[in-house]
Amino acid sequence: MKTLYPPIEPYRSGHLDTGDGHSVYWEQCGNPDGIPVVFLHGGPGAGCSPQHRRLFDPARYNIMLFDQRGCGRSRPHAELENNTTWHLVADIERLRDMAGAEQWLVFGGSWGSSLALAYAETHPERTSGLILRGIFTVRQSEIDWYYQEGASWLFPDLWEGFLAPIAEDERHDLVGAYRRRLTHDDPAVRIEAARAWSRWEGSTIKLVPDAALIDSFTGDEFAIAFARIENHYFVHKGWLEDEQLIRNAHRLKDIPGVIIQGRYDAATPPRTAWDLHRAWPEAAFHMIGDAGHAYDEAGILDQLIRATDGFADKL
What we know:
The chain is of the alpha/beta class. The chain has helices at about 85-100, 110-120, 140-145, 150-155, 155-165, 175-180, 185-205, 210-215, 220-235, 245, 270-280, 300-315; strands at about 10-15, 25-30, 35-40, 60-65, 105-110, 125-135, 255-260, 285-290. α5 (about 155-165) runs antiparallel to α7 and α7 (about 185-205) packs antiparallel against α8.
């Protein structure tokens, strides 16, 4: 089984001034003369970690990672103004231009797969390849599954914790109810909602629960950005038409791609990955039979490293 490359540090980092109130943290790692690749983290609102640098052979790749607007080391923290899918697509283009890359490989998991699809369908000429994991396309049915009814049937005990901050008469629209709390004037109301929202995700994304992961999701700074930004994007349906990313998958026909999906992914169920596979049959498709949603589950990680190694050989 393939696993992560050894730890590395950035050779260059900084902040991109977007010109509309955001300062986006970015870093480059690996070989400055290597194959350009951009890593798109999940959430939205999760930020990057040092582990993400290790998904790529540092001798062969020039790796760009960045914390999307409002999260991680980007500032202002948890800011929702001027924070949409299309702002992020524009940020990716600014970073590509800054890096001096004509094209680059685009790697995205979970929400990162949504953003990767939005970017590649908008800028296919700038995309040398796509590696997608835990496919999510921000369809209303996908949002409803995880935040209204669906995954709740698999985790009824954990679901009670997600419902706890929400009054009974508001539970017909949980995303909307959380929106009111995550944007509330009272910081105590915001943090209670943010912890409950983030704990739900941290508790359900792995096939085997990981206590350390759950703890990391419920720390105040992470939870506020993660919950506020995720909820903001889902209230607005990602600023996408409902089937847009699947419908426009024909634009990817000439882009080499790999789709990797956990069979028991409760956060982004395999139906979406299968729909994308049918719409984009040219991409390789891997269903991992003993995995959930997280990138570092053994079978998923093995295929991700095989994909990045394979693209390094081709590109």
